[in-house]
Amino acid sequence: MNTLKIPENHSGVSKTLRLPENIVDDVQNLANLKNLSFNKTIITLIEFSLENLDEEDKLRLQNLRNN
């Protein structure tokens, strides 16, 4: 029998960002295309950006995390 597992919500921090209107429009359109929330789309884009930093910036960021 299959069971329902509801994932726990990640803890979140509320931040206010001022974004150019064209970026908001593009992100919202992408979210609509993928049937995702605006917030989830932003999180995915930021995660991708952080994972694909150049090596020097990755190392500097790791050093900041470890301090």
Please describe what this structure looks like:
- By secondary structure, the protein is an all-alpha fold.
- It has a domain at 21-66.
- It is built from three helices and no strands.
- α1 packs across α2.
- The radius of gyration is 16 Å and the shape is extended.
- The mean pLDDT is 90.
Short overview:
This protein is an all-alpha fold and 67 residues long. It contains 3 helices and no strands.
Task: Offer a few descriptive terms.
67 residues, single chain, 3 helices, extended, mainly alpha
Record field, number of beta strands: 0
Radius of gyration: 16 Å
Beta-strand fraction estimate = under 5%
CA-CA gap between termini: 47 Å
Uncertain segments of ≥5 residues (pLDDT<50)?
none
In helices, the fraction of residues equals 55-70%
Q: What is the string of helix and strand elements?
A: HHH
Characterize the overall form: extended
The number of distinct helices, counting runs of at least 4 residues, comes to 3
The class by helix and strand makeup works out as mainly alpha
Summarize the biggest pleated sheet: none
Mean pLDDT across all amino acids: 90
Topology:
Layout lengths: L20 H14 L3 H14 L3 H12 L1
Helix pairs in contact: 1-2
